[in-house]
Specification:
The protein is α/β, with parallel strands linked by helices. The protein has one domain (2-135): Resolvase, N-terminal catalytic domain (Rossmann fold, 3-Layer(aba) Sandwich). 51% of the residues lie in helices and 18% in strands. The chain has five helices and five strands.
Length: 142
């Protein structure tokens, strides 16, 4: 099975070690499963609230080109925290015959998309409320 790894962290308060840790853990899982890692993609210090991220866009283009059988990530919220976006990514990958597997959720299916998508959307909403309370602005997190 040909696999791609996707890793992301969202804040400049985090560091590149987060990406390296995610990639390492995903490589270890792929090795245990006997999957071949073809490539990895990452987005550093970019929110999962939008798909306007170079790493995820490049991944989606390569998925459409038929380069992978599996997309592997640490958790579903690394791919996206937006309900509509994660559902769209899932739909595109499923149409291309590509499976999403995460270290947290395992093989991702429709129920994961619904539940985790909702939880991620609630996280973003709560984060926006906290930012307004602390800084007096929502930082664009509507």
């Amino acid at each position: 099975m040909r696999a791609a790894i996707y890793a992301r962290y969202s804040s400049d308060k985090q560091n590149d070690a987060s990406i390296e840790d995610q990639l390492r853990l995903c490589r270890e899982r792929a090795t245990r499963e006997g999957w071949t890692i073809v490539d990895s993609y990452s987005d550093r210090s970019i929110s999962g609230a939008s798909l306007i991220r170079p790493g995820i866009q490049n991944l989606l283009e390569d998925v459409s080109a038929g380069n992978y059988d599996i997309v592997l990530a640490e958790s579903l919220d690394r791919i996206s925290r937006d309900q509509e976006d994660i559902a769209g990514v899932y739909k595109r990958l499923k149409f291309a015959g590509v499976q999403i597997v995460t270290l947290s959720e395992g093989d991702v299916g429709e129920l994961h998309i619904g539940f985790k998508g909702t939880m991620s959307a609630l996280f973003l909403r709560d984060l926006a409320v906290s930012v307004v309370r602390v800084f007096g602005t929502n930082g664009g997190l509507n």
